[in-house]
Design a protein that fits this description.
Alpha-Beta Plaits, 2 helices, 107 residues, alpha+beta, 28% strand
């Protein structure tokens, strides 16, 4: 299995297909995904590319990092695992507050 690469500072016009095409020169692209905003559908300016081998991923990092793609110098490095998210949905109570004027207070 290959390595997943983080690709940052992408042009907002870049889509999955053009991202895949940009990296296909370095080997087989298993997947290419530009991350988009859930509400607007607009690119967030970064994405991920998974190459089929570690050597292809290394070549892509060395040759693409800092290169200008669609007028922007992109950042390419090995993707780090996603950090676990804190908490869960909203709406929970977090206690605290109130300044000590709870039940039975005369103030």
């Amino acid at each position: 299995m290959g390595k997943k690469l983080y690709v940052g500072n992408l042009s907002f016009s870049m889509n999955d297909s053009s991202l895949e095409q940009a990296f296909s020169a370095f080997g087989t692209v298993e997947s290419a995904r530009v991350i988009t905003d859930r509400d607007s559908g607009r690119s967030k300016g970064f994405g991920f590319v998974e190459m089929s081998s570690d050597q292809e991923a290394t070549d892509a990092i060395e040759k693409m990092n800092g290169q200008v793609v669609d007028g922007r110098p992109i950042t390419v490095n090995e993707a780090r695992p996603q950090a676990p998210r804190e908490g869960g949905g909203g709406g929970g109570r977090s206690g605290g507050g109130g300044g000590g004027f709870g039940r039975g207070s005369r103030y």
